[in-house]
Amino acid sequence: MRYRVDEMTMADLPRIVEIERLAYTTPWPPSAYRRELQENRMAHYIVVRDTWLKPPEPLGAPRDDQHRPFPLSLLPVRVPPAISPEAANIVAFCGLWHMVSEAHITTIAAHPDYRGRGVGELMLSSMIGLAYSEHARYVTLEVRVSNYVAQNLYRKYGFSQTTVRRRYYSDNHEDAFVMSTENITTEAYQERYTELRARLLMRLASDNKPPAPTGDYENLK
Questions:
Q1: 156 with 149: CB under 8 angstroms?
Q2: Are 51 and 86 in contact (CB under 8 A)?
Q3: H or E stretch covering 143
Q4: In this predicted structure, what is the pLDDT of residue 189?
C-alpha cells in the first residue's frame, strides 16, 4: 500500500506544525500538540505517509560566509526544528478525543495535491476504526457550513447534521455544522463501514500518480 497510517509521535511534530500553519489561518501553537501527545489521555492522533516520497537530503554545516552581518549577528537566531527524514513523507494528519461513548474528531488536514486520491477519506475511515477500538458508539465533528466537499464525505460515512455552532471559526466567524454518526456499533453500520473501507483500500492500491510536491495544505474542517 502506497499510503501508510501511523500513530503520531513527538518526532512528527515539526512536520505537523508545518502542515498546521499552512492549513489553518489560526493554527494551534506547537505546545498544544505536545500537550495532546504527552498529557491528554483522551487524545489520539494519526499521520498518513506517502511512502513514495523520498526523504530530503541532509543539510550540510553552515559556512563561515553564511553568518549574518553586524549588527543582526548580535540578535538571537530562532532556528525552526528540523524535520526528520522519517517525518518528511507525512502528507496528512488527524486526531480525535475519546469521551465516554463519543469520539470527537478535533482536526483533519491534508496536502492539497492529494485531493481526489482518497487521503481525506483514509483519515476519516481510520478515525472511525480508532473509535471502534476505543469502544465509542458515536463519532462527531464540526465542519464549516461552506465546506460542501467535506460534508459530502462525512455523509457518505453516515454523518448527519445535529446542530449549528454560530460564529464558530475565529478567522472569519463562519458558522459550523455539528455532525454525528448513528450508533457505529450496530450491525447495519458495521456492514456499511466494512464495505466502504474495502472499496477505499482497493482505490488506494491502484493509485499510480507520481508523488505530489510539498507545499500548501488544505483542511477538511
A1: no
A2: no
A3: strand 138-144
A4: 98
Please give the Cα distance from 208 to 90 (Å, whole number): 18
C-alpha cell at 8: 503520531
The helix-helix angle for 30-38 and 13-23 (nearest 10°) equals: 130
Cell of 28: 494551534
Q: How many residues does the chain have?
A: 221
pTM of the model: 0.83
Average the pLDDT over 28-57 and give the result.
Answer: 88
192 sits in which H/E element: helix 187-205
Let me know if domain 3-58+86-219 sits in CATH 3.40.630.30: yes
Beta strand pairing status for 138-144 and 3-7?
unpaired
d(CA 214, CA 164): 34
H-helix or E-strand spanning residue 190: helix 187-205
- For residue 163 the three cell numbers come to 446542530
Q: How confident is the model at residue 125 (pLDDT cuts 50, 70, 90)?
A: very high
121 within 8 A of 153, measured Cβ to Cβ: yes
Rounded to a whole number of angstroms, the distance between the first and last alpha carbons of the chain is 26
Helices (H), 90-212: 119-133, 148-156, 187-205
Report the distance separating Cα 19 and Cα 112, nearest Å: 11
Residues 98/62, Cβ–Cβ less than 8 Å: no
For residue 53, the Cα-to-chain-centroid distance in whole angstroms is 18
